[in-house]
Amino acid sequence: MICVKCKKEIPDGSVFCNFCGKKQTVTKLRTHKRSHGTGTISKDTRNRKQWKAYAPADKYSKKRIYIGCFSTRQEAQQALDDYIKNGRPEFYNATVGDIYKLWSDTHFRQVSQSAVNLYSSMWKRFAGIENMPMRELRTAHIQAIIDKSTSKSAADTIKVLAVMLCKFAMENDIILKNYADFSKIPKFDKHEKRIFTADEINKLWEHSSDEVVKIILLMIYTGMRIGEMTALKVSDIHLPDGYIIGGEKTKAGRERIIPIPDSIPELAEFIADMMNGKSENDSLVEISNQILRNKFYKAMIDCGISNGHKQGYRYILDDKTLTPHSTRHTFASLSAAAGMRAENLQKIIGHANYNTTAEVYIHQNVDKLKEEMSKLKR
Hints:
- With 378 residues, the chain is mainly alpha-helical.
- The chain is built from 13 helices and 8 strands.
- 39% of the residues lie in helices and 9% in strands.
């Protein structure tokens, strides 16, 4: 026979090489069989590098309980031991979709409708892993969803949603760490924010008899988001005093005073027409956020501001940078150009990033804010 190490010829049946001393056979360590009723560990028949762990059979179903697949026998052993020691978590076999349902049932009661709509929209991106057991979710699965995002805001929201789902799963002992925390937001090119030009605003005024155009002009001259506009109740309007109470999102943005510029009296007339015949609990705008968004794009085409086409029930603009949120950017630009002080603009628009000096102006009265709004001209 030939030595396995030095390759010299040695007598047949030698345990050790006569020349280099190398042992000729390898003694395989024996794996001790687990005691009856303590579960099973076996190699995956489809992937011999993976080990499967099963807990003892459930007394009701009489079937072994699959715990998971692991890269080493030791990991499978540890998982099985932990399972037997700590007991089966209530939601052990819950899917990612199950966790989203359980989490959203509680969380959605604590946030605004716009937040509910946002998370519901982002949840659709998780369709590919919805039926995956939550205990098998890892950073790579979340990262793959984030990487498909086309904007930083969408990527941020997906990560926030994933973090909250993982946290909920940790609280219920399904996973041991928040894998979403390790995901990364890709770099996105920054695009110039689109605002309405003076000519485009004039075109809107030329079509101001249209109900949707009236709403768009109100958004341009108040800085209100489309969701804030559709959420307004008649009781939020204080027309004799010249202001609206509205807002959403952050603490600074909710329940804020939004003056109606008395330098543009047509705006108050628009609001009065919209309030006519309604009770205090009625919505000022009688269409949903999504319908108003679609009507916004139709109005851009009808007013000759942008070219576009109808696709099914939706209107698509060639200028994809023009969105309902452009009205808010336009308001900020018009206000700054009119000389409105930064701290007053931040207060009216509802942003929270005040500096120490600006904190003095947080509690300004309505008259002061109305005075600032009067700097806007048609």
